[in-house]
Design brief:
Blueprint: E1 7-12, H1 21-29, E2 38-42, H2 45-53, E3 58-62
Antiparallel strand pairs: 1-2, 1-3
Length: 63
Amino acid sequence: MAKAKSKLRVTLLKRAAGRKPRHAECVRGLGLRRIRHTVEVIDTPENRGMINKVSYLLKVEEA
């Protein structure tokens, strides 16, 4: 049986407009669209890298 992947709940707290273009791309890559928008993403190294890059804009919780 496949092992269940853990998920992270990510919330955008500050807007990405006016930030470095790569940071805005990371926010969009995580699926976040507006302030206080929350999404659940699978805990992978790729997603962790994007979260670490823009951690000053986000709130992250275990889902």
